[in-house]
């Protein structure tokens, strides 16, 4: 079923092109798209797959976690992905434990993230396992996936974000087309 959400995301790309940045909250439009059952879990696992494909150079525990995640996420159906829930839970726990370091700041504890891509996989598995009916979790995952720090604009949607938003749009068009085929 076609929606107007992908077109609204394309407007965000236009805004980035015109002004150099856009506010992260513009991605809240995704909540409407996630309201349809199965889309949120499909999106979360798609982001996880993208994150593990961008691993860069890693070694030790991080490399092992990337391998475990790639193995778990291999060959999933793009619309109705099904993971072994026990394996997904174990991987989520390993990912959380790997980056379970906090530093106390004057406003409270702050989690230290050593590998942003592994954090995205952890968040995606959390959605798949426990928050599949929470579009706001999907929005936060999309914001974490797309945000980029630029000293001119702070933490927002800017230059490199436009590529990730375009990837999301292509994913959405693919899911909507496959949904139409299956109905």
What does this structure look like?
By secondary structure, the chain is mainly alpha-helical. It has eight helices and five strands; from the N terminus they run αβααααββααββα. The longest helix is centred in the C-terminal third of the chain and has 24 residues, at 159-182. It is globular. It starts with a helix and ends with a helix. The chain has one domain (5-182).
Q: Shape from CA axes?
A: globular
What percent of residues are in strands?
Answer: 5-15%
Instruction: Describe the strand arrangement of the main beta sheet, using strand numbers.
Output: 1-5-4
Q: From the helix content, strand content and strand pairing, which structural class follows? A: mainly alpha
The Cα radius of gyration reads: 17 Å
Distance between the termini: 9 Å
Taking pLDDT < 50 over at least 5 consecutive residues as the criterion, the unreliable ranges are none
Total count of strands:
5
Largest sheet: 3 strands, antiparallel
Q: Helix-strand pattern, N to C? A: HEHHHHEEHHEEH
Number of helices: 8
Q: How many distinct domains?
A: 1
Residue-averaged pLDDT: 92
What is the helical fraction, as a range of percent? 55-70%
Secondary-structure map with pairings?
Blueprint: H1 5-19, E1 21-22, H2 30-34, H3 39-53, H4 60-73, H5 85-98, E2 101-105, E3 108-112, H6 116-130, H7 135-146, E4 148-150, E5 154-158, H8 159-182
Antiparallel strand pairs: 1-5, 2-3, 4-5
Helix pairs in contact: 1-8, 3-4, 3-6, 3-7, 4-5, 5-6, 6-7
């Amino acid at each position: 079923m076609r929606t107007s959400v992908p077109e609204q995301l394309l407007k965000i790309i236009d805004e980035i092109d015109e002004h150099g940045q856009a506010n992260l909250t513009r991605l809240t439009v995704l909540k409407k798209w996630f309201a349809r059952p199965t889309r949120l879990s499909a999106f979360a696992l798609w982001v996880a797959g993208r994150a593990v494909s961008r691993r860069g150079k890693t070694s030790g525990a991080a490399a092992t976690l990337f391998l475990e995640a790639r193995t778990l996420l291999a060959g999933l159906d793009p619309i109705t992905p099904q993971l072994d829930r026990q394996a997904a839970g174990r991987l989520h726990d390993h990912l959380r434990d790997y980056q379970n370091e906090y530093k106390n700041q004057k406003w409270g504890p702050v989690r230290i993230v050593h590998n942003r891509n592994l954090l995205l996989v952890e968040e995606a598995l959390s959605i798949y396992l426990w928050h599949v009916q929470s579009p706001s979790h999907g929005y936060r995952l999309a914001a974490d996936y797309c945000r980029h720090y630029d000293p001119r604009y702070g933490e927002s949607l800017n230059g490199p974000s436009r590529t990730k938003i375009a990837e999301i749009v292509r994913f959405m068009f693919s899911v909507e087309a496959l949904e139409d085929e299956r109905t």
